[in-house]
Write a structure and sequence with these properties.
single chain; alpha+beta; nine-stranded mixed sheet; three-stranded antiparallel sheet; 16 strands; binds zinc ion
Length: about 475
């Protein structure tokens, strides 16, 4: 029998905080902008410049730490992590090593095998680096310091995860907590959430950990899942061949679906951390901490419970709607306007989810306004359009945020309530389909459905099915002989 293996995974997750200004200066954190325009002497590392800590960074870090059940170091400090790299203008990064702001927390995840706690070793605050742009035409590298000094928190987990599924569940849980807190938008694609995966393999039942590798450059949940599977296979193959796994940092290439070594432990840097002499320690008094605790917004679990009570949604519906902060916000805004929570939930869960999947979009990127969805719900509810036409209109709302009232008017989608017109169409269809009429008379219910379908098609879906059915029965009755 072949040997059984177990994978052991720990994550380091970097999250860009949603502050307006950088962590140690007043420059904007806005994404984009011409290179090196969001900069000043502090975030370009000019000699003599001095950092001043952004209070909002501490508050976001505390909010995330509290939501992740962490202990808080009410006396914490910043340290310098020294290394040379062209995107790092000071030649050190201001981070936290000895006394990080949060430590010893956990989040609970849900997987197909049940609930599980993933422990959090620590959360620390630090600054982001600039960006290098490699210009292959000119054969040179350029540096843009706009991102330099953007505030980050790094969330370091314990090596508690045992599968790709657990890793994704953990990341989704973190992302939801942080989005609900408003501390970051956590977009993996845009780099405001980035995960490094530490992974090792051991024989099932072994108590010692195997040698681990670290994988960087993972910018989607799918890439993370593929990278984990690729690295698991690679390490097992090495072990089976009697070779050893080398402790190293590897870069995952998602296009090639393989990883390659970036640097081994032998070239690992000695960062020579020491306390930053330019920044005083951060003292978080009880009053401040209590204020943050009291100001924590409603998180997902509470929201789910409230939706079931306040809006009578099922647990399943509440679970799907609260699965994205933006979706939950939309739901509440639509409901506040039209007062039809069940309808609002249905349009979001069925039609919006279908279109999201079709277009490979995240719910966070839906851009239509709650007003327009509320108007659409009203149009269907008061019988101006039927549900089938409603779906067509919803697609336009979803894609281009059209005003449903104007769209229905312009495209002539209103239900035809003119009984005379409907009767004429039905009489024509009955006359053209003698076989179905015969079948109906012989008690075949299917024939009725067939004639209904014909009529709806002839009316381009704009008829009220109830009215069609009524008139159809009447017409068939009168031709019964
Ligand atoms: Zn600056």
């Amino acid at each position: 029998m072949s040997r059984q293996y177990e994978i052991v995974i720990g994550l380091e997750v970097h999250v860009e905080l949603a502050t307006k200004t950088k962590i140690f200066c007043a420059c904007t954190t806005e994404f984009g902008g011409a290179p090196n325009t969001h900069t000043c002497p502090v975030c370009t590392g000019m000699p003599g410049s001095l950092p001043v800590l952004n209070k909002q960074v501490v508050e976001y870090a505390l909010a995330v730490g509290l939501a992740a059940n962490c202990q808080i170091n009410q006396y914490c400090k910043f340290d310098r992590k020294n290394y040379f790299y062209p995107d790092n203008p000071q030649n050190y990064q201001i981070s936290q090593l000895y006394l990080p702001i949060c430590h010893d927390g956990y989040v609970e995840i849900n997987t197909t095998s049940g609930k599980k706690k993933v422990r959090i070793h620590e959360i620390h605050m630090e600054e982001d680096a600039g960006k290098l742009i490699h210009d292959e035409w000119e054969n040179c590298s350029l540096v843009d310091f706009n991102r330099s000094g953007v505030p980050l928190i790094e969330i370091v987990s314990e090596p508690d995860m045992r599968s790709g599924e657990e890793v994704i569940a953990y990341l989704e849980k973190l992302r939801l907590i942080i989005q609900y807190l408003g501390a970051s938008d956590c977009k993996l694609q845009e780099g405001s959430m980035r995960a490094d995966v530490n992974l090792s393999v051991r024989e099932a039942g072994a108590s010692e950990f195997g040698t681990r590798t670290e994988m960087k450059n993972l910018n989607s949940f799918k890439a993370i899942a593929r990278a984990i599977e690729g690295e698991r296979k690679r390490q097992i193959e090495l072990i089976e061949e009697g070779k050893s796994v080398v402790q190293e940092t590897r870069r995952w290439d998602d296009n090639k679906e393989s990883s390659y070594a970036m640097r081994s432990k032998e070239d690992a840097m000695d960062y020579r951390y020491f306390p930053d002499p330019d920044l005083p320690p951060v003292l978080i008094d009880q009053e401040w901490l209590d204020r943050i605790k009291a100001g924590q917004p409603e998180l997902r679990t509470e929201k789910m419970a409230r939706y079931q009570v306040e809006y009578s949604l099922s647990e399943y519906d509440a679970d799907i709607i609260t699965g994205s902060k933006h979706m939950a916000d939309l739901f509440e805004a639509v409901t506040a306007i039209c007062r039809k929570p069940k309808e609002a939930a249905n349009w979001l869960m069925v039609e919006a989810m279908r279109l999201l999947k079709e277009q490979e979009m995240e719910p966070e990127n839906m851009t239509f306004s709650p007003e327009n969805l509320a108007k659409l719900i009203e149009l269907v509810d008061n019988g101006t359009i039927n549900r089938t036409v409603g779906k067509e209109v919803f697609e336009q709302v979803f894609k281009e945020d059209v005003d449903p009232e104007r769209y229905v008017e312009e495209k002539g989608l209103k239900i035809v309530n003119d009984e005379g017109e409907l009767r004429t169409v039905i009489q024509e269809i009955v006359a053209a389909n003698p076989q179905s009429v015969e079948d109906y008379r012989n008690g075949k219910e299917k024939a009725m459905g067939f004639l209904m379908g014909k009529t709806m098609r002839a009316m381009s879906g704009k008829a009220d099915p109830g009215a069609v059915s009524g008139i159809l029965k009447e017409v068939l009755g009168s031709t019964r002989g």
